[in-house]
Batch of 2 targets.
Target 1
Amino acid sequence: MKVPDGAREDRIVLGVQISIVICFYFFTAGFFAFLWHAVYRSVADNDHPVHAVVLASVITIAFLILASVMTMVFSVIIREGRKKFPANGGLANETEIK
Amino acid sequence: MVRWGMVIDLDKCSACRACVIACQIENNIPPPDPKEAANFRTISWMRMVERIEGEYPHLKSNLMPVPCMQCEHPPCTKVCPVGATNKTKEGIVDQIYGRCIGCRYCSNACPYTVKTMNWYKPAWPKEMMDSLNPDVSVRPKGVVEKCTFCHHRIQKAKDRAKLEKREMAPEDYVPACAETCPSQAIYFGDLNDKDSIVSKLSRSPRAFRLLEDLGTEPNVYYLREGA
Amino acid sequence: MEVVKPDGRLAQGERSAAAGDEILYRPIMKTGRGFYTVFALLSLVVLVAAYAYFTQFRDGLGVTGLNSPVFWGVYITNFVFFIGVSHAGTLISAILRISKAEWRRSITRSAEVITVLVLFFGLGNILIDLGRIDRVLKVIAHGRFQSPLLWDVVSITTYLTASSVYLYLPLIPDIALLRDRMKGGFRKRLYQVLALGWAGTEKQIHYLEKGIGIMAVTVLPIAVSVHTVVSYVFSMTVQPMWHSAIFGPYFVAGAIFSGIAAIIVAMAILRKVYRLEDYFREVHFNNLGILLLVMTCLWLYFTFSEYLTVFYGAKPDEIKVFMEKISGRYAPHFWFMVVTCFVIPFTILANNRTRTIKGTVIASVSVNIGMWLERFTIVVPTLMHPRLPYETGSYSATWVEWAILAGCFALFALIYMIFTKLFPIVSIWEVQEGRQKAQGEVAERLKTYLPA
């Protein structure tokens, strides 16, 4: 009876882990929306668009780097952790460090 | 395009401060509480600025009425994070109370110190409540305000002109200070109209503007005293 | 220079190494009465500050000492000060990681936590300073990027995100260690989620280190930009003694300066309270003390440069502000700042014999006080002297402003304390990695420096 429950728990934990990254993407997307909306506003009102364009470009690059790092780290660590579990004899999120 | 401007003749100005009072009544500026006034919190859109040179008894004193300069290149509009202060097409630096978040960056950026802040909710004695001007919004607490050349009067002038089935003439729109000045030291009009009195006076050899070296291009000219 | 003390401490340290750094787990496993007492006292201070803010929210900014022309005062000083302290984590973690300085291993975590937490207080003070905090969403909907305040919003958000990621990544292996220790309950679930299934495989370690390396390089320009744009809020106006090209570098140097001082104080407190003498050793305080010494000299250089330029140029508006600081109403603040930012730290830190743990802590507390005063003497004297002949302003902060300042420190300490109860304040895996792998790596590196 323990194994099915454990597997379900494992899936919940995995779900929360993935949703952390999804939340990060949502936050990044929201921030991009704010930045590029401000660029659009400044171009439409002819209100010194150069500031908005320069800043939005630089910050977009910075956030793309952050999002890439988060994706890379999360995907590799979670995937590797799940691979180990048959060898460990246990569940993915209960792996012990060798 | 119209460019509203003001010329103040310092020879005619007697520093009676009628303009200051007129402005306060017209624009629903609350009378200052004595304690708040002692803490430099009096709101006054038109200020009488005194410059004293020399040592007593050989003093030279200049008194100048200073409204908002309505600069062509306003330092205040540059720094507003939400666009609550902005320059209209007719040359007036506008202040949108509904947009203002009260950060006071514009107040700090203005080199003429013409911006004031509502530190508390504006309050009038009960007896004065009937004398509030219905054409001007009462500001909430926490927003910045300043002289707007009484531009609420433009709408009134346009409405009156429409009623009388004519175009609005430049003389129809005049701010409270210019209207009230007993020595008629304040002239107001369209600086872009080369025939208007303000345009002619702004090109007078007596004309000067405050802090010209900052490049703000104020639309308020002064005529030097003692020609 | 590590001094071997003839007492039991080193022996205890050896024991803790053998016992697998047990002492680092102790704050997480057990909580003593001292913790609850301090927690209660700090909560009291926070409640007073909350009440102070409530009076301001209800009545308006009039409850502060702000007026015309001094529109900005203690709150903006706090904002600049806290954002400055946030450079703590960046310097220690990122720069020392990139330069492969091995002594960083036990101190990176406590520094990174300071950064992430203190940014919220910087942001908080700006929100507190707004006349209409209920309209703050207008900044998002109607933001104008011509305004340096928007540069601030964007830069600080980016820095907050980057430093949170930079705090979390090296935390993963430590969370896995905690996950393996816990028997069950809410905390085990929390650690299971956050550990991402960490098993210490080669691939995981490789990619984690790669991620940390990218973050270390990315977070540096972001951090420099943060305090630079904070300085631009002042230098982009034309006000006397604000409109100065030196503000960008001056503020960044000042930020790193107060950041190092903040870490030293935090480390000293943690060392005492959690008995981490073996992890925060003399050598750490000594090295940070030397960095602090370099920064105090740099601070003096920038300050001297700024004031000499103003004095020599003798522009009338600037001289008025200058004289206010040197010999006017703010002279006590200015000279006290010089003493606490340079005289005291320099005399303590320049001398080997006084650069002990106690000495560096005294110097750091002095620096933090001095740096707060530096921000204050930048903000207020300029505003007191508007260009037009006008009554010179004056400014006296009220109880509301001081209460909120105290509340910020108290809340910061509170949240920091909670962090130490959930996660190890010393990076356990990095210390272990240092013990096992670092010596070999360092020996290899040394060989490459010297001729064959």
Target 2
Amino acid sequence: MAKSQEQLQQTRSATSLLYDPKFRSYAFQILLLVGLVAFGWWIVNNTITNLQAQNKTTGFDFLSNTSGFDIGFSLFEYSRSSTYFDVFLVGIANTLLVAIIGIILATILGFIMGVARLSSNWIIARLATVYIEVFRNVPLLLQLFFWYFAVLQTMPAVKDSIAFVEGAMYLNKRGLYVPDPNPNAAFLWVQLAVGAVIIGGYFLNRWAKKRQEQTGERFPFVPAFIGLLIVVPTIVWFITGANVDFIYPELGRFNFKGGIQIPPEFMALLFGLVIYTGAFIAETVRAGIVAVDSGQSEAAQSLGLKNGDRLNLVVIPQAMRVIIPPLTSQYLNLAKNSSLAVAIGYPDIVNVFMGTALNQSGKAVEVIFMTMMVYLTISLVTSVLMNIYNARIALTER
Amino acid sequence: MTDNSVAFVRGEMADAQPAPSTSKGVVGWMRFNLFSDIPNSIMTVIGAIFLLWFIPPIFNFLVTDAVFPWSVVNTVEACRDHAAGACWIYVLDRMDFFIYGFYPSEEYWRVNICFALGALTILPLLWPDLPHKGLSAIGFFVVMPIITFFLLNGGNFGLAEVPTEKWGGLTITLIIATVGIVASLPIGVVLALGRRSKMPFVKYVCIAFIELWRAVPLITVLFMASIMLPLFLPEGTTIDKLLRALVGVSLFSAAYMAEVVRGGLQALPKGQYEAADALGLNYFKAMYLIILPQALKHVIPGIVNSFISLFKDTSLVSIVGLFDLLNTVQATTAVVEWKSPNQAITGYLFAAAVFWIFCFGMSRYSMYMERRLDTGHKE
């Protein structure tokens, strides 16, 4: 009782500033900041010196220069007189194209395989297991090489094309040829009708749910929606006289004319990405379904729910909660893995921008920075979207 | 009550009858697993047709029609035959290249010693019943890499110097994987602790680092490492191509490792942190003695999964020009000497098998550890 609280504090802070957690925390952070700034300054300084020694300038004005090289596959107009910025855009578009189609197909394959692995049918379960364990444990790059060099490059030459559908679908060394749909102007109305039905379906669903909660009466939403989706556009089709002309690929003297040519690089990349990611998604789905306690199913049964309702209302919503976060990272992995396109020559952003454009312009720092920003943006946008979805289906606790 | 009111009372229990023949043995198993109802039967038929359609051609390709060293005709002509299957003799012929790359053949023994050393030092780590885990960890994480480096690189102790450009094949794949594993775990732990730190600046630096690496594909990281690293260093420093790839791979996998470890840290009940505080342990002691041992144990499967993806990702260094296993295979798929229709497929299948054995082995091991460590929540 000799010293008051105040005195005690004074002696402590005087003797041991080093042991004051607050002080230590600040000191450590300032140290880290100084270290990082020094490191950053050192790197920037080195880079500038190195670039000066190589007589290179910096800045983004090279983007408006003519690129001077061709790109084999582009979604929009591109020629060798286009600028480096066009190369950048073509690369982004190609990356997104393969990523989006890949995500859709991999999800379908993954869900089928994940459910199949849990099937009570022995053969089906074993087949799914073999698929998952084989493709999950072999590097994607190797699989891409396999599909591209060992499978698609050994396809027959143009004149010996394999006809999947005689007169419409051909496969040869240069790729897959499919009919080119050519809708007339009135087809726009059909598209609008489909859009209207989908939007209407959203509100119909909300109304049906609300009514069921209030009155207990159920509305057969799914059959009604599918019926509308078929009937309304068909009526619009006949009223407006919409039509789609297919331009079929025809074998010319050297190559096919007409139709859409899907290059082998794209097919190999898509194949590889879908099969590889599908195996991972299957595992995610399986884990999600297993995570739902069997008591939940039994409880649903004892409440008298039908089999379909049991799955739709009890099992799947709970499984999705477990599935969504890892599924997001699988989607992101697929988008990032599409950069392996560079190994088989599909013109994605890494191939055309970080590869050819970088080599030609020599603007290493700028090009790599821009490419990384593209992937960063894709990652952040996907994460945000999936987080919103995840928050919506998350468990609401009272 | 008279005795004869009951006609017959059995004195002893009836013998147990055998189960009906339809519910036991092969028939019962098939009824239960393959033909329990109509949809199930349809799926069985589809699966069986698929297998019959799929397995024989693959088996023929790999074995029946394949060209082995002991085949009747075991030259490249046999592989060029129209009906030939896999050309295994080509793989065997190039096996040295696939394993050692361009390493001089009279120095192969050095690589072999390193393989043996690696196997010897990792075994006591993986075998859960062996004691002295700390010592074995030092053996694998410190002693083995140092000896391996001096042995492979040479230049001292009377060994001829072999520059890293000559390293290749499975050797370099294993080197990159091991270095990645050895480096990424400690960096990942530090990053994970930093991300959960109460100091805001430390926390945000770690978050930025982790999220940045995780957002970009490894291939851009490798490109950056091979193009930008020379720019970042003082003028005139040359930095080895292999080292560039190693830096890229290590930092990349460290970011993923950090997220795995963070999962383990978050899964730990708050009471453990508070108990460590209550015991008067300082931060480092609390982490080292209380938190990390438990957190890391929780996430061993996750850590092994990261190792598996790291191992698969080593194949990407072939894009920046290193001759790893995949690249050595890829480089020989077009050699004229063995030119034959199935040469490429055979090469890829061989490489796939090697990668598969390593990755599948790791995943089985992680499942085994998971079962072994799952001591707490038995139902």
